[in-house]
Amino acid sequence: MILGDSVQILIAMTLYVMVVIGIGLRYAKRASASSENYLIGGRSLGPWVTALGAEASDMSGWLLMGLPGVAYWFGLSDAIWTAIGLFVGTYLNWLFVAKRIRSYSVVAGNAITIPDFFSNRFKEDKKIIMTIAALFILVFFSVYAASCFVTVGKLFSTLFGVRYIYMMIIGAIFVIAYTFVGGFLAESASDFMQGVIMIIALVAVLSGGVIAAGGISEVLENAKSIPGFFDFFGMAQPALSDGTQLVEAGRPIFGEPVEYGFLTIVSTLSWGLGYFGMPHVLLKFMAIREVEEISISRRIAVIWCAISLIAAVSIGIIGRIIFPTSLLTQSASESIFILMSANFFIPIFAGIVMAGILAATISSADSYLLIASSAFSKNIYHGIMKKEASDKEVLWMTRVTLLVISVIAMIIALDENSVIFTVVSFAWAGFGATFGPIMLFSLFWKRVTREAAIAGMIAGGSMVFIWKLLIKPMGGIFGVYELLPSFLLSSLVIYLVSLITLEPSIEIQEEFELAKNYKSIY
Hints:
Layout: H1 3-32, H2 35-40, H3 47-74, H4 76-107, H5 114-121, H6 128-160, H7 164-213, H8 216-224, E1 234-235, E2 240-241, E3 244-245, E4 247-248, E5 251-252, E6 258-259, H9 262-269, H10 279-287, H11 294-322, H12 330-333, H13 336-344, H14 347-385, H15 391-412, H16 420-444, H17 450-471, H18 483-500, H19 506-516
Antiparallel strand pairs: 1-6, 2-3, 4-5
Helix pairs in contact: 1-7, 1-14, 3-4, 3-6, 3-7, 3-10, 3-11, 3-14, 3-16, 4-10, 4-11, 4-19, 5-6, 6-7, 6-14, 6-15, 6-16, 6-17, 7-11, 7-13, 7-14, 7-15, 13-14, 14-15, 16-17, 16-18, 17-18
């Protein structure tokens, strides 16, 4: 990329960054008014902001880099089954969980964080559930934030030829400063804008790719010529030497495709289970101003999700056809969106399109940092360590914790060969298995007990590490995505422990019924 082009791209992205900073400053005063405003925006989000904010913070840079990278590297199957699982999970989460968590979080002591909700739901005196939930949030959101920093590092390193580590640190500092000032309202407002930019960027690059490839029929014909690349039940296998794909006569070499069997499909579809435990999505549900507006939000979110996922997978497939030998490692393949943007559009427009990656990264990282820092400040510091702390103290502790978590995430992100998809999949499994089962049981089963909640969270969260590090490497039937067995184990533990422990108190059961029949008063 010539210098003039880089300057134009930088100008476009800088203008975008200035708009985001303006949003943060606009909401800074309201955010500082109280911890409730800073952490959940006073439950004042409209349906459009809720919908696009939830989806933008959920999908992150993974949607524009990680998922296209999987499609570019392995072909259709792994990417499309993941996308299908995510789409179904998105729809079911909005359909069943959104209204109930919005209602129940108000009824259960006006909870403004996920650990708050669980603790209030089970009427804890000793805040064991709150502590466990907060600690798991700190661990997994540190990993999640690291994936965002990896994304922004790869973006700017690829664009401007500057060392990854410098670009990662600069990008991380910007995200930290923005979240530090604006809080939840700024994060949600910018997420709305970023959701719009992300879908425009995806559709623009997809359209440019189809034109550059000579049309859809040409794309299909070329994709089918690669063994296993365009199969639903087979997966392409790049031939590698020291992690780099072999090239012969200007063409990438692929080995024999591997079967994408029923167990693998179920494992990949299980990505959808993760939605029921995603704090950054659940928090958006809790923050909408009216329960009745969730139906509108659901329709917006589902349409956005379908278009974005289809576009992301298609970009990876088309990218392999147009640039077959440009990205020869799995880590490098995650830059296909950047490569296509830079080649298809004039520099100033390419900068706007690639601001979509920055948008996705910011919209996710600020959510992750905000929720993780609030888990400590609100639930551990204020809930356990210093119950007499003032609201201002809690607010400042949130910001201090945010800085500490950010440093940890930056350390995790130092490896420029990190594969974004892999980093995200681990954190996704962690949240899905730790919080997904107990969230569903808490919202829809009156008989679930506090002891079961504790046992289920520990079982699910621990199994993610055990399966990923010890069992999955054994391969075969054990090679499934760690979310599936961990989610099932947590659900089983919650059910069995609930049956062998005393029924919840009358107060808890009456509150359950109140939440079930709740009508919004906001």
